Amino acid sequence: MGRTLQNTMINLGLQNACDEAVYQLGLDMEELEEIEEDAGLGNGGLGRLAACFLDSMATLGLAAYGYGIRYEYGIFNQKIRDGWQVEEADDWLRHGNPWEKARPEYMLPVHFYGRVEHSATGAKWIDTQVVLALPYDTPVPGYMNNTVNTMRLWSARAPNDFNLRDFNVGDYIQAVLDRNLAENISRVLYPNDNFFEGKELRLKQEYFVVAATLQDIIRRFKASKFGSTDTVRTVFDSFPDQVAIQLNDTHPAMAIPELMRIFVDIEKLPWEKAWDITKRTFAYTNHTVLPEALERWPVDLVEKLLPRHLQIIYEINQRHLDHIAALFPNDVDRLRRMSLIEEGGTKRINMAHLCIVGSHAVNGVAKIHSEIVKTQVFEDFAELEPEKFQNKTNGITPRRWLLLCNPGLAELIAEKIGEDYVRDLSQLTKLHEFVDDDLFIREVAKVKQENKVKFALYLEKEYKVKINPSSMFDVHVKRIHEYKRQLMNCLHIITMYNRIRRDPTKLFVPRTVIIGGKAAPGYHMAKMIIKLINAVAQVVNNDPMVGSKLKVIFLENYRVSLAEKVIPATDLSEQISTAGTEASGTGNMKFMLNGALTIGTMDGANVEMAEEAGEENLFIFGMRVEDVTELDRKGYNAQLYYDRLPELKQAIDQIKSGFFSPKEPNLFNDVVNMLFHHDRFKVFADYEAYVKCQEKVSELYLNSKAWTKKVIRNIAAAGKFSSDRTIKEYARDIWHVEPSDLKIPPPNEPRDAGQDKTPNGTAA
After folding, report:
1. What angle do CA 643, 648, 654 make, to 5 degrees?
2. CB 240 within 8 A of CB 281
3. 325-330: long-range contacts (C-beta < 8 A, 24 or more apart)?
4. Phi, psi of 408 (to 5 degrees)
5. Per-residue pLDDT for 482 more than 50?
């Protein structure tokens, strides 16, 4: 979620009043804003997407709740020591959190372990361990519409009789100390992005948030007029018309068997009825196609922790497979491929398959990704129910990612096209009229230059490096991962360095290359990549032959509040994942909206950005998905590229020989070995095209006016990438609610008694 103060002032229309009031007290609002800690309760794009979605849902007047876990420790703070990443605990609650309100009156029990007893009345889950879920509510204000929604985060608490009922009679002290075991559930965020780690505590977290949330939803449903008991029909008939639950990836997949457990075991609905309601309630968003990221929980772990849920999953699977066997007799391989249970070695539950079978809608997050989901990853399921599969291209909130972080540009745009674009970003197309307006071109360039100077001052303060603000700011910020190919950027840096040294007199367009992002603590290769970037920076930044032509900076502790500083100052946005690996990306959209040009592959939402702005207004290079597929078919041989490309050979030889690590010549052996022998993401295959494309970038940067015209065309084409547009599509195509742009009256104005506060009855 990042910081809340400035976003709240903007959405409430209070920023100028607050700035003025604080100024009159002899204080500086910006200084105050810098004191607030980021709420970093997610890992990368997926968590930030949820935050943008909350802002858009409130702005569109949807009665929507965001549910999650109130981690005591969020994503770790990253320190760089001697070029290595070092993790520190993110004690973000140390000074309290003024935005949250504990709601002990809504505390709910969550059960674990135990056993299942079958009787005539049905299944009973007994002898369980109980953990309490304590909700904390954070307000989510819509933009200037007097609407405030709720984000409800659950914290784990031990019940007061925890460990005191049974065995521990004698050791009271130890029993109280053991309360920590229960409360550890909400202690810390698992720091993996696009990687599955099958730990018991993680499964506990996933079930904890799901069980608490579903009880909360059902309590609210029963308390509403829709849930009123009717002697004729089942109480829950209207449930899917009143409740829509969107599964943000498979992490909350246990919600499907949990809702079935509630309906069948507790509410005593017949299976068929319960399953129909469940399917109509859930929809699933897929966020990745990387196989190592797909959740596959060992059956024996689920059996120990959630025995009843395993039985329910088996029953869901049996009925699912019976259905497929009827449609495709004798096709045992299809049954194996489509089963929720993977046999062989340790039996595992494929959570994505569970989500597809248990949902009425499945979507990818960009056109190209949704196609890959349909035709490759889940092709058997798409063949069975093609109408279930959709696309919902991601978006970003223009409130945080333009108004808040780039007020200069936001104001400049408002002067030309009015202020309405903030709620309807498609209006940015009106800027096309000004693409040849010399004054506007100069003003856009001036805002960018001011942002760069401001960020350069920040860098000099934080990193003690002198930055040339007229150099091209070439920025690559995102989680560190092999598929995102920070290594390819690093090879380009080395290539530029070698070119400067080969001919110091030759014209070179000055660059400040800024790379930032966190590596999962257990991801060895990602940590080596950070060390390599810092080792290269050490050499480049201290070579007098290079001077101010080339500077390399690794941005420490990349997070939302830092993104808000660097993105408005960026000239060139790096979006260079191997085609077919980045589901969408959202950083790409933030840079586009803030006046950077993109160098990127035809991957994720880059494809649609090129479609909107015109491919000639992005720097597109490299293999397309088809080329990658073809190269896989032929077999990727890294050695061929190394032998054919002298500049690539030189760069690799320097890394290998210890040119960047003279005290430890073999330091980067693992990296070099990976690049040659098991590089799944084919860095060498795109290196040549990337370097050539970067030459085109430098050439255009020399012509400030031509560059800025492309910038304006990009901003004018960024309207599609508002999360408001994304949420309208979810609302209409999946949740079946109508967004409203009604501004409800403020609390101090009397309202007509007849006026319904929420135009849509349905909660998402």
Report:
1. 105
2. yes
3. 327/384
4. -60, -50
5. yes
Positive or negative torsion for Cα 152, 156, 161, 167: positive
Candidate list 478, 559, 713, 720, residue with the active-site label: 478
586 is catalytic: yes
Encode burial over 269-292: b for 16+ CB neighbours within 10 A, e otherwise: beeeebbbbbbbbbbbbbbbbbee
pLDDT band for position 227 (cuts 50, 70, 90): low
CATH 3.40.50.2000, applies to 407-713 = yes
Partners of 474 in beta bridges: 513, 572
Reported as half-sphere exposure (CB side, CA atoms, 13 A), residue 544 has a value of: 0
CA 561 to chain centre: 15
Residues 6+ apart with CB under 8 A from 700: 597, 706, 707, 710
Residue 724 CB neighbours (<10 A): 27
Give residue 290's Cα distance to chain centre: 15
CA angle 339/341/344 to nearest 5° reads 110
User: Structural domain boundaries of the chain?
Assistant: 1-36, 43-190, 210-392, 407-713
The number of CA neighbours under 13 Å toward the Cβ of 340 is: 25
CB neighbour list of residue 149: distance below 8 Å, 6 or more residues apart = 54, 57, 58, 62, 63, 64, 65, 66, 139, 140, 141, 142
Q: Which amino acid is at 369?
A: H
Question: What number does CATH give the domain 210-392?
Answer: 3.40.50.2000
* CA-wise closest residue to 534 among 493, 567, 571: 493
Confidence bin at 163 (pLDDT 50/70/90): confident
Are 143 and 422 in contact by the 8 Å Cβ rule? The answer is yes
Residue 722: phi and psi, rounded to 5, are -80, 135
Helix (H, G, I), strand (E, B) or coil at 52: helix
> Contacts from 273-281 at CB under 8 Å and sequence distance 24+?
273/234, 275/316, 275/319, 277/236, 277/237, 277/239, 277/240, 278/358, 279/358, 279/359, 279/360, 280/240, 280/360, 281/239, 281/240, 281/243, 281/244, 281/245
Beta pairing partners, 696: none
Q: Distance between terminal CA atoms of the chain?
A: 19
CA distances from 521 to 188, 190, 485, 518 (A): 14, 10, 18, 9
From 374, 452, 479, 511, the catalytic residue: 479
pLDDT in tens, 498-544: 999 999 999 999 999 999 999 999 999 999 999 999 999 999 999 99
CA angle 752, 756, 757 (to 5 degrees): 100
Which residue out of 138, 393, 581, 586 is catalytically annotated?
Answer: 586
Q: Looking at 287, 296, 549, 656, which residue is catalytic? A: 287
CA distance 28 to 18: 11
Compute the average pLDDT of residues 117-144: 97
Listing DSSP states for 485-532 in one string gives: THHHHHHHHHHHHHHHHH-TTS----EEEEEE----TT-HHHHHHHHH
Of the residues 452, 484, 551, 656, only one is catalytic, namely 484
Return the minimum-mean-pLDDT range out of 132-146, 158-172, 436-450: 158-172
CA dist 585 and 325 (Å) reads 38
Respond yes or no: is residue 479 known to be catalytic.
yes
In 525-656 the beta strands, taken as DSSP E runs, fall at: 550-555, 572-575, 597-600, 619-620
Catalytic annotation on 590?
A: yes
Instruction: Count CB atoms within 10 A of the CB of residue 520.
Output: 22
Is 478 catalytic? The answer is yes
Per the document, the length of the chain is 764
Residue 136 near residue 100, CB atoms below 8 Å: yes
- CA-CA distances (angstroms) from residue 60 to 356, 573, 610? 28, 30, 27
Q: What are phi and psi of 50, to 5 degrees?
A: -60, -40
Indicate if 407-713 has the same CATH topology as 210-392: yes
| Residue 104 CB-density burial (10 A; 0-12 exposed, 13-18 middle, 19+ buried) | exposed
